[in-house]
């Protein structure tokens, strides 16, 4: 099966040579080809270039993209889309003046979602989650990381991971699974956190490894949740089972978790709303990708990750949604890219790099996705008729996507 996209107004994020991620000043460079063609062969990008060099070959399908642009699908490296029910009541509580912290301390928050999830069957959980997955695919997401962490018992965590596995087996979008058992301390372990950590490392991890249920291990390193020592303990335990570390860190307080992430060779450190100079320093010249989650800042009215300061310090940055029922009930990467430009003062070039190439790196799919490069999967966004790619973040809240493709196949509504 060969598909030719011709007359593409602008082909965006073209990387002739594979590149793992971009940092600092290079984040502001977004290579494109105007009036371009793109050939997809059996789901992979096989050729692209300027229309004047478009080869005359026999193809199975021709798509005329006149007036429209093509870019690689968004790579959303941080989500919690497998959850039960919602937390709309807490949303209203916050409108009425309660803080996210106060709600959590009153038995709401993550524990509230865990209670619902424990009472939900695996089948129902799958049905609820697949609706969210299909929704974000239509919004242009072509690779997604999904975390457990609303189970908080061995059985319920495994149930979540099995749902992720079933999504992986059913959909052609790239999916990576993360074990986030250390998302919150269950009430029954409140005075005995060590026992809960032992349960995760000694009972859950061997089962997860045996059933190949996760690629990554994560922990919420935060005041009132898990300490830096807990973080190092969990991440190192996960590594023994072949899981690669990631961390939720510096969301409300900076307690040294970024340094722990770097020390444990985390693939990414995520949230980073509160960044001290020493945290920025710690990330320099490392392979750990900082990930910002602007929709979470928007929804909770907390600070935005200081993108300008980080990029000017020479760091890379990725953008993700954090789609979850408590802090970010939205999986819209288009909104994330707009909000990064509007609130974090990222340029459209920086934001698109952060949501494609750098996002792919933050979830370990940079060799397969995240740019228009020969041999990569043809997970693509075809825009509506727009004058420039900057119009996508500019026209926030308006859907500028006409069609999405996974492995070269149009995914219809
Ligand atoms: N901060 C920790 N975990 C999730 C939200 C958890 C929740 O409120 O359900 C996050 O990334 O924002
Ligand atoms: Zn999260």
Explain what the structure shows:
The chain is 35% helix and 22% strand. Helix 5 (154-170) packs parallel to helix 6. The radius of gyration is 21 Å and the shape is globular. The chain has 2 domains: 2-73 and 371-410, Urease, subunit C, domain 1 (Roll), CATH 2.30.40; 75-362, Alpha-Beta Barrel (TIM Barrel). The strands form 2 sheets. Strands 1, 2, 3, 4, 5, 14, 15 and 16 form an 8-stranded mixed beta sheet that branches. An 8-stranded parallel beta sheet has the order 6-7-8-9-10-11-12-13. A hairpin with a 2-residue loop joins strand 2 (32-41) and strand 3. It has helices at residues 88-95, 100-105, 110-118, 122-138, 154-170, 193-210, 228-240, 257-263, 277-283, 294-300, 307-312, 333-344, 348-355, 357-362, 391-394; strands spanning 2-12, 32-41, 44-50, 61-64, 68-72, 74-76, 141-147, 174-182, 216-221, 244-249, 268-271, 289-292, 318-319, 380-385, 401-406, 409-410. With 413 residues, the chain is α/β, with parallel strands linked by helices. The chain starts with a strand and ends with a strand. Bound molecules: N-(iminomethyl)-L-glutamic acid and zinc ion (ZN). Residues 78, 80, 248, 322, 324 line the site of zinc ion (ZN). Residues 78, 80, 248, 322, 324 line the site of zinc ion. 4-imidazolone-5-propanoate binds at residues 87, 150, 183, 251, 327. Zn(2+) binds at residues 78, 80, 248, 322. GO terms for molecular function: imidazolonepropionase activity.
């Amino acid at each position: 099966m060969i598909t030719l996209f011709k007359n593409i107004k602008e082909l965006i994020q073209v990387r002739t040579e594979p590149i793992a991620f971009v940092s600092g000043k290079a984040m502001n460079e977004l290579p494109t080809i105007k009036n371009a063609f793109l050939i997809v062969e059996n789901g992979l990008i096989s050729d692209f270039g300027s229309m004047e060099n478009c080869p005359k070959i026999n193809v199975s399908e021709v798509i005329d993209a006149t007036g429209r642009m093509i870019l690689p699908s968004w790579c959303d490296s941080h989500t919690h889309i497998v959850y039960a029910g919602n937390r709309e009541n807490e949303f209203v509580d916050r409108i009425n003046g309660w803080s996210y912290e106060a709600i959590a301390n009153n038995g709401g928050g993550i524990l509230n979602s865990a209670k619902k999830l424990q009472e939900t069957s695996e089948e129902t959980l799958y049905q609820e989650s697949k609706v969210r997955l299909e929704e974000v695919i239509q919004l242009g997401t072509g690779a997604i990381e999904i975390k457990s962490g609303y189970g908080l018992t061995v059985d319920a965590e495994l149930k979540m991971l099995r749902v992720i596995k079933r999504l992986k087996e059913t959909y052609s979008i790239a999916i990576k699974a993360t074990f986030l058992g250390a998302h919150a301390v269950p009430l029954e372990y409140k005075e005995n956190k060590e026992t809960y950590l032992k349960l995760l490392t000694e009972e859950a991890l061997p089962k997860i490894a045996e059933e190949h249920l996760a690629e990554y291990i994560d922990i919420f390193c935060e005041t009132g949740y898990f300490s830096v020592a807990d973080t190092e303990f969990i991440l190192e335990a996960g590594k023994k089972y072949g899981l690669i570390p990631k961390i939720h860190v510096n969301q409300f307080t900076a307690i040294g978790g970024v340094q722990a992430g770097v020390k444990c060779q985390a693939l990414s450190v995520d949230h980073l709303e509160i960044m001290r100079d020493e945290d920025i320093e710690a990330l320099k010249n490392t392979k750990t990708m900082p990930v910002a989650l602007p929709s979470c800042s928007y929804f909770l009215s907390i600070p935005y990750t200081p993108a300008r300061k980080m990029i000017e310090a020479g760091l890379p940055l990725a953008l993700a949604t954090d789609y979850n029922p408590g802090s970010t009930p939205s999986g819209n990467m288009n909104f994330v890219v707009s909000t990064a430009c509007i609130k974090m003062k990222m340029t459209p070039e920086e934001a698109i790099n952060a949501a494609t190439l750098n996002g792919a790196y933050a979830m370990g799919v940079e060799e397969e996705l995240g740019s228009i490069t020969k041999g990569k999967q043809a997970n693509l966004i075809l825009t509506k008729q727009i004058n420039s790619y900057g119009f996508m973040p500019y026209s926030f809240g308006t859907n500028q996507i006409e069609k999405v493709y996974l492995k070269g196949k149009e995914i219809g509504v």
